[in-house]
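Holo prediction. Input below; ligand is nicotinamide-adenine-dinucleotide.
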Amino acid sequence: MTTIAFIGLGNMGNPMAANLVKAGYEVRGFDLLPENLAKAEANGVLRADSAEGAVEGAEAVITMLPAGKHVLTVYENLAPKAAKGTPFIDSSTIDVDSARRAHAMAAEHGHLSIDAPVSGGVGGAEAGTLTFMAGGSDEAFARAEPILKPMAGRIVHCGAAGAGQAAKICNNMILGVSMIAVGEAFVLAEKLGLSHQALFEVASTSSGQCWSLTSYCPVPGPVPASPANRDYRPGFAASLMLKDLRLAQEAAQAAGAAIPLGAEAAQLYALFEAMGNGGKDFSAIINFLRGGAEGNHSPAQKSRIKVCASTC
Ligand code: NAD
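Structure of the complex:
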């Protein structure tokens, strides 16, 4: 039986590890939070007392952590301890620079590595239908691909080290910008006396068609499964959208790319989060657009908006 070390058993890592167990892998898991370790144990993951303990004798290492700094700390610790040639798979969403540094650390100790961020959210992690966007050598990808399969609906090898993270942030920038565009269109339609359903029927079959409209419509009604029909419970939280839009900003600055709509989207989501909406689904931005920065917000909210606008 192949043993996999899984580090980071949070909202995403826990169901991903559970699908590896179901596929017949021995999964040794570690997380800093005892409650997440307990959940993993209930799913058949073998509990390790430390990240080092999880990696001992493991034939692959998967990380699913909050940000680049966590991934680099874990790689610094584990890369010297894993058996030479072990594939390291990082599925966290992190900045491209940290992803490349993590690859370099793995290579320094003779390991294969891929960055393999995912889209599909907690629902996709539970169903084993995540899309993996992978960056790394052909050899590393070939070793990692069969391990990813039980967690995946689709696996795309995007290119060399960091290409998976690049694909992830470019995709999510499209998503953030298009959700704002769709939200603005519904708000304008309301002001013009056009019904939600009428706009949906026209735009969903016309040139305004996009995923934010047809699969994730931000107003209740036209797409019954969208979070708008359940009071904007996530789904994909606005705070995670903001994280990804900020990663796009960082990458664009480092690469010298102009992304003015990406910058505007990051600022709008920063304002939305500063008003206490980070835990709502990102499609709830329509309610912020409907109120307007100077519209229905309380004086306390307005002053927070001003503070945030001058800092973000
Ligand atoms: P989470 O906060 O629920 O899980 C992260 C886990 O990592 C936590 O349980 C934390 O205790 C653990 N952790 C942190 N540092 C650690 C360390 N040094 N050693 C061991 N464990 C450590 O986050 P999540 O929602 O599972 O997201 C994980 C990653 O996936 C993030 O990068 C996120 O951006 C990305 N992502 C999330 C979603 C989503 O819908 N939640 C979708 C796509 C991608």
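Strands lie at 3-7, 26-30, 46-47, 60-63, 87-90, 112-115, 118-119, 130-135, 152-159. That is the main takeaway for now.
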